[in-house]
Design brief:
By secondary structure, the protein is α/β, with parallel strands linked by helices. Helices cover 54% and strands 12% of the residues.
Length: 569
């Protein structure tokens, strides 16, 4: 411990470290046993859905019609022939057919979509069924066309029904993104037919024997829980086995199965990338699901297509019954199984318990550590932490589209700059002298040089802890698994590794290097393999929240010597 630190302050920081340890382990224990006490069965908050309340219109004749289409598609030699054939089939089903050529992210292709107008509506609302074109999706294409023919015969359609076949260079994501961009940002170019999108389904082929309902989209965004329940209930009513994550091949007990399902659901949110293509709809505030359907064997008699067609019809009819968008159920939740979940009011407690120790430590330092007459010593600390936050915002915006390597090096250079500046801020008047130095290139005088007898900076830690709590609190509400993972990574290190913690200076420096913003970015990139948009969110957190508090800890914990800090960093 710093010999210049006041004994009361030293005791408060030690108490904060002990309290942080206790609260952290309480939060971790609470998180592990969470499914045992607060897991709830799913239910419908919207009474108008009426899933499977009416008799299905999809029959065996529609399945046979779809099976007749399959060999005709397989015989087509070119992509243009496939587009023409699908367009003709959609016109036969009473749809208005549109073609959309696009060029996006270096990929050129063609989307084909049809709009089946509602009999009782005014074309102000619509729902979408999207299917990617590809060799592995032939069953889904035929199933969708069979469903389109079935819905052409019904009289209950109150929303326009859009069938969208998307093209793309790798996984048809470019075609879907191009269609959504034209619909919402440039409707004059096409894609704006059908009114407001109320819900969307994206179909994929599954190699498993189960249907999988995927809810997690880009950046961990989730659709309304009612839509997820509709998909699960409709598939289950047709005796189609259903899961909400990729199924495990070995049997587990009820608690372990629930816990591992919730963990994998949370892990998909932590990755933050477009794990499923319905995430593109979620970015435009359209509730959507990706449903992976098993492909029937070639010699199957058509009963599997009838089951799948009726399940999809039940989902679309439930959405059709809504007179507005989904809004009554949860938008923040963890699915522990297809029929159980944990809501935000229950799962936010463990994460708050882990990070609330930041608040206790900050209040203790600010109000109870020293006599009120010495609170003026926090002035230089405020200047230091404000500089750190301002530099974090500059880092976030100065390289908006740079490579990851450049961003990592920029964080390192910024940390070196702050560690050189911090010792030269000894009072409120030193900021102007520092600005003059940086502007004129002159050397600091003796009055602005770092003092070997400068007081220990507990106020810097106090302000950094308060800022970290606010940043992690916001992150937890936006994406709970993401915020929890960051808390597990940062709390033990940044709160418990302080000026009063035991251990050598070498151990502290090594540990701080392992939990630096650069380490956080590299670990996230290595474990999650995120897309550029998800990486931008992590970089934003690293610059605006993690970077200032880490620099404050390095300066407060390791040494007052800027030269040593620079060499170590």
């Amino acid at each position: 411990p710093d010999p210049l630190m006041a004994p009361p302050l030293e005791g408060v920081l030690k108490g904060a470290r002990i309290l942080g340890t206790v609260l952290f382990f309480v939060g971790m224990t609470w998180l592990v046993v969470l499914p045992m006490g607060v897991e709830r069965r799913t239910y419908f908050s919207e009474n108008a859905l009426l899933v499977n309340a009416a008799r299905s219109s999809f029959a065996s004749r529609h399945a046979h019609k779809g099976r007749d289409i399959a060999p005709r598609i397989a015989d087509l030699a070119t992509r243009d022939a496939v587009w023409d054939f699908l367009g003709d089939e959609m016109e036969t089903a009473g749809m208005e057919v549109h073609r959309q050529p696009f060029s996006l992210r270096g990929c050129k292709g063609m989307n084909v979509y049809g709009v089946l107008r509602s009999l009782h509506g005014d074309s102000k609302e619509s729902m979408v069924l999207s299917v990617p074109l590809g060799e592995n999706n032939q069953h889904l294409v035929t199933l969708t066309m069979a469903l389109a023919h079935a819905l052409h015969e019904v009289s209950w359609l109150a929303k326009d029904f859009i069938v969208l076949f998307t093209d793309g260079c790798s996984d048809a994501r470019e075609g879907l993104d191009a269609w959504l961009e034209d619909r919402f940002r440039a409707p004059s170019r096409g894609g704006g037919e059908g009114g407001i999108l109320r819900a969307a389904l994206f179909l994929e082929s599954s190699r498993n024997r189960q249907a999988i309902v995927h809810a997690v989209g880009k950046h961990g965004f989730l659709p309304n829980l009612d839509l997820v329940n509709v998909g699960v209930y409709a598939l289950d009513a047709q005796r189609i086995p259903v899961a909400v994550t990729s199924p495990w091949d070995f049997d587990l007990g009820r608690f372990m199965k629930s816990w591992t399902t919730g963990l994998r659901f949370a892990a998909s949110q932590i990755c933050g990338g477009p794990l499923d293509r319905h995430g593109s709809f979620l970015l435009y505030n359209v509730d959507a699901l990706t449903i992976q359907l098993p492909t029937p064997p070639p010699n199957e008699d058509g009963s599997a297509m009838v089951q799948q067609g009726r399940a999809l019809e039940a989902i679309l009819r439930a959405v059709n019954n809504m007179v507005e968008g989904f809004h009554q159920s949860f938008f923040f939740y963890l699915l522990m199984s297809p029929s159980s979940f944990i809501s935000i009011g229950n799962y936010i407690g463990p994460q708050l318990t882990m990070i609330v120790s930041f608040v206790f430590a900050s209040i203790a330092v600010t109000y109870f550590a020293e006599p009120s007459g010495r609170l003026s010593r926090s002035g230089p600390a405020i200047i230091r932490i404000l500089l750190a936050y301002v530099l974090g915002w500059i880092l976030l915006h100065i390289f908006p589209s740079a490579r990851a390597e450049i961003r990592v090096w920029s964080i390192g250079i910024a940390a070196i700059l702050l560690l050189w500046i911090f010792p030269r801020i000894q009072d409120e008047g030193s900021l102007s002298r520092l600005v003059s130095l940086l502007a004129d290139g002159k050397k600091l005088g003796a009055s602005s040089s770092p003092s070997s007898t400068s007081p220990s900076p507990p106020w810097l830690l106090s302000h950094a802890w308060a800022g970290t709590f606010v940043g992690m609190l916001v992150l937890s509400f936006l994406n709970f698994p993401y915020g929890t993972a960051v808390a597990i990574f940062l709390v033990p290190s940044l709160l418990l590794l302080g000026p009063t913690s035991p251990g050598s200076l070498l151990r502290k420096r090594i540990w701080l290097c392992l939990v630096s913003p650069i380490a956080l970015i590299l670990v996230y990139q290595w474990m999650a393999h995120p897309d550029p948009e998800a990486m931008q969110i992590m970089y934003s957190f690293a610059c605006v929240v993690h970077f200032p508090v880490w620099v404050a800890h390095w300066y407060s914990t390791t040494s007052q010597s800027s030269i040593t800090s620079l060499l170590w960093w």
